[in-house]
TrEMBL record:
This is Pectin lyase-like protein. It comes from Zasmidium cellare. It is found in: Secreted. InterPro entries: Glyco_hydro_28 (IPR000743), PbH1 (IPR006626), Pectin_lyas_fold (IPR012334), Pectin_lyase_fold/virulence (IPR011050). It comes from the Eukaryota. The keyword Hydrolase applies. Keywords: Cell wall biogenesis/degradation, Glycoprotein, Glycosidase, Hydrolase, Repeat, Secreted, Signal.
Amino acid sequence: MSRVQYLLLLPVLLFASFWICKMKFLDAAALLPVLPAFASPAGLERPNVCVVKASGGNDSAPAIIDAFQRCGHNSGENRGKVIFGNETYHVKSIMNTTGLSNVDIELHGTLLWDTNIPYWLNHSLPVGYQNQSSAWLFGGENIRWDGFGVGTLDGNGQVWYDFINGTNNYPGRPHQITIAGTKDSIFDSIRFVQSQMWTMTIIHSQNILLEGIYVNSTDTKQQVGFDFSSLNTDGADTVYADNITFRGWTVDNGDDSISTKANSTNILIEDCDFYTGLGIAIGSIGQYDGVFEIVENVTARNITINNMRYGAYFKTWTGVSSGYPPNGGGGGLGYAANVTLEDFVLKNASGILAVTQCTSYNSASGNCDTSKFHIRDLTSRNWTGTTTSGVMADVQCSAASPCTGVVIDEMDGIVTTTNSTVPEIYLCDSVIDPTGFNCTGEPWEENPRR
């Protein structure tokens, strides 16, 4: 071939080579549910960055697990990243992505859980407390997860609310996500909707900030009430957790907004708007016979309560053990101490503040004076707003371990919606030397949740 012929043929060869390479790349991309990102100017591959590709209507769980396996374990000097695009990821099987390190997560789309109830009942993963289980175990060290205000976990919860139909703690019903064995991490601007059960459990974890979180798990078919079908849709529960901050949360659900359970210490809940459910809960606790557990140094402040059962309430099991967790137990030991609830605004709350040490299930009743779990140094201060109740506080403590250091003060900014007067009824049992109030009578019922 002459030099002239070669020069004339060269553009054709280059064009053909370009399209062959491009078609190979496209074919490979179509086969990979997780794509490595190419970020450097030189076009070099970054193996610790994964973009998860949705699997259409198929199960995206294997691709999600693979992404965290490949890009979720990194050294401090070389952080990894897992990116979910603006797509819907159908989750049809359980996921365990624990033991992560130094990874950033971007969630721009929606993780949508499948409605195959028999599968989840038989495969959900043990949480390690109260015989509860979860659809997703997640955790590690130095994690930063950003949902940008749009990234969503959708549990398709209505099918569960219909299925359990008011059954408390249905066996195998999964929590949406369990943050387990996690420390020094941030979860920011993520949306959680229609959770299957508890939205999230934070267990065996420390030094976590959860900020700008939106939770909405509401029954679309039935009116709110204690025995309605979206029972157990807690916004978040802490267990064996230390130094956990909930800041700027919005929760609309059918149960506890945020609950601090066994061995929760140094918990801060601030600048939150809560709707519809039962309120901030301390407990339940004291469920395991003879086991010593604590809740200590809990602060909730700048909280707005909208059409809820309470602003906050405490609940411990009786001192008589009956049945097994999650729907049985009692006889636990320990204490709840240094709990401060301040700067609450109530909007049409049906109750204000409650303490019960009568918790039991299996149709058991009585034994309200048997719990040896001690509640002390509880302060409620500077609450304002409106309520339908004339009872400021219903404090049913146990005679076996009376409450001490209870302070209820600066609450005269609360008025009833019936006659615009400040509630003046303080119902008390086994409260020693109350500060800021006088007890006016005994509690009317064993369990103020009902």
